[in-house]
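Exercise (ungraded).
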Amino acid sequence: MVRSLTRAAALIGWARREYGGLADRAGTVGLWLLIVLLLVVGVVDARQYLVTGIIVGSIIALGALGITLIYGILKFAHFAHGDMMMFGAYIALAALVGGGRIGPLSFGWGMIFAILLSMTVLGAGSVAIDRVVYRPLRQRGSSTVILAIASLGVAIVLRAIMLLWWGPDQQLYVSGIHPAREFPFDIMLKPDQIFIFATAVLLMAMVYLLLFRTRMGKAMRAMSDNADLARVTGIDTEQVVMWTWIIGGALAAVAGILLGIQSNLKPELGFTLLLPLFAGAILGGLGSPQGALVGAMIVGISQEVFVGIDLPFPPFGVPGYKPAVAFGILILVLLVRPRGLFGKT
Amino acid sequence: MEKGRLVAFLAVAAITAGIVGISANDSASLNGFISFLTVFITTVAIFAIFTLGLNVQWGYTGIFNFGIVAFFMVGAYTSALLTKGPSSSEFVKYVGGLNLAEGLGPLNLHGLTGFVLGALGAAVVSGIVAFLIAIPALRLREDYLAIATIGVAEVFRRLAIEEEGLVNGTRGLTGIPRPLHDLVSPPDYKFIYLAIAVIVLLIIFVAIERGARSPWGRVLKAIREDELATAASGKNIFAFRMQAFVLGAMIMGIGGAVYSANQGSIVPDTFSHFFGTFIIWAMLMVGGSGSNRGAILGAYVVWGFWTLTGLIQPHLPAALETRTSYIRDLLIGLLIIVMLLLRPHGLMGEEKRVSLFAEQKTKRKTPRVGAPAGPTEV
C-alpha cells in the first residue's frame, strides 16, 4: 500500500518535472479558452444568468481582493474572511434604522450610513484582532500556518458572536417583494442589483487608486513583493500591515452587506463563502489584486451560468451545486496553473 | 511537578469532578448516572480517533486539513452502505446496501465481521479521496490543501443532499447495523459499544505510536521541521507527505465508521463544520500537536468541557440558557486562539522521541520535554 502510493507519487513528480513547462503553457491557454467558452455560452444560452453572475462576481471580488491583499502582505490564508463578511452584514443590519427609499431601491439613506458604519467597525475591528492575535504570533516568528489556524479560531469566535446576537435564522434587510425591471436583451434586473454592481466598481476603483497612486499603496506593493527588502528601504511594515487590515476589513464589510442585499444574512454562510472567495483569489493568482478581480468575476459567472445551463448531469441546472462549481475551478487551477492567471512564479 | 503537566492534571481533574458531580446530582438513579458516563466516554473515544488522525497529518507532518468532516462523512456513509441491507422501500433510495452485517452466514459473528469490513472499507474510500485531493493540492503551499479540503467537505455535503438516490438525500440513512447488538438487551448495549470504541481507539493509538518511533515517523517529523534539509537527505518529501495525509484520512474514515454504527442513523446535517472539523482542531491544539497521548487528552478535555457546559445549562437563568450553545462555540474558538498564544505545544507538549530501537537499547524512558520541543516554528 505504502509502496504503491510512493510509486504513484514519484510518477506524478516525474511527469511534472519532464512536462511541467509545457503543461504550464498548455494550462494557461486552456484556462483562457475555457473562460472564453464560458462567456460565449453565457451570452448565447444563459444571458440572464451571466448578468446575475457578474453581480455576484463583483461581490466575491471585494472579498477576494481582501484575501489577496492580506495574503500578499502577511503571507497567510485568512480563513476568517468569510465570517468577517457576514459580521459586516450583521452590523449593517443592526445599524439600519428608518425606512425611506432612494429612488427605485428597496432601502434608504439609512443603508448608506449603515455601510459606512460597518466599514469603520470592521476596519478598526480587524486592526484590533491583529494586535491581539496575529501580531504576537508574528513577533514570535510563528510560521504562516500557525497564523492561518489562529484565523480559524477567529472565524469560530466571529460566527459564535453572530449566533449569540442575531440567532441562527436567516434575515433580510428589507422584507417584501422588490420586482425586477426589464432591460434590453431580455434581461431582468432589480434596481438593488445595479446598486450592488455600482458600489463594488466604485470600491474597486478606490482600491486601485490607493494601491497605484498613493505612497501607502506603493509601500504595500513593495512589501507584497519582498517584505525584507521593503523593511530595509525604511518602510514601516507594521503600518503597512495596519492599513492592509483596514482595507481588507472595510472591503469585507461592504462585500457582506452587498451579499445580504443580493440574497440574505445567515451566520452559517460565512465559512462556506471561503470557497468562492479563495477559488477567485487563487484563479487570479494569490497576491495579485487585478487577478482577484478577474478570478472572482469568473467564479461568480461560472456559478450562475452552470445553474442556467440545463444538462441532465451535475453540476448543471442545480443551484445547490454552486459551491461545487467553485471547487471545480479551484482544483482545475491547482492542477494546470497553481500560480493563477496573473500570479508570479 | 512541571508546570505544563500540572495544568493538564488540573484541567482533567476539574472536568472529571464537574461532570461526575453534576451528573450524579442530576441523575434520577444510579443506572442513569452510569449510562450518562458510558455515553460520554464513548463519544470521547470516537472524537479521539479523529484527533489522532489529525495528529498524523498536522502534528507529525505539518499538513493542514480544514475538511476533517469530509473524511468523517465519507467513512460514516461508506461503512453504513457496506453493512446495511438493500433498501426495502421505494421511498428509501441509496447505493450499495451490501448487507455485510448479516449476509455472511456463519461468518457473521453477530455483525462483528461486517463492522470490521465496514470500517476497513471506510478507511479505503477515505484514503482514496485523500489521495485524489492531494494530487493537485499537497505539492503546493499548505494553505491550498486547507482550502481544497474545505471544498471537498462542502461538495460531499451537497452531493449527499442533491443526489437523492445516492444516500437517501436529506432524510439520511437509518437502521445502520450495530455489531454484537443481539448479545445483550438494548439498554445494556452501550457498554458493549464503549468497549468496541475504546478497542478501535487503542489499536489506532498503538499503531501510530509505533509508526511515529520508526524511521518513517522520523522522516515525517523531519519534514515538518525542515523540508529542505529533509529533501537534501534524499527523502521524497511529496511521497511522505502523501502517505501521512492518506493515513490520517483513513483513520478519520474509521472514526466515521465507529460513529455511524454508534448512532444507528446519519443525515447530511450531522456533518457540520463545527462538530466535524473545528472542535477536533480545538482538541488537538489543547492536547498538544505531535503527541498521541495529548490528542486523546485533548479530546477528553474539550468534550468534557462541552458536556460540562451542557450539564450546567439547565441550572442557568432562562435568558442565558437558550444561548449557552453559542457561548460554547465562542469558547471553543477562544480556546484555539488562547492555546496558540499561551501554550503553543498544548497541555502535553510533544514527547521527545527518537527511536523505538534506541529506547529498547537504553532500557529507560526518554525524557519528556516541555516548551522547546515540538514544531520549532510555532
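Further reading is listed at the end of the chapter. For now, observe: Chain A has a mean pLDDT of 87. Chain A has one domain: 34-169+181-336.
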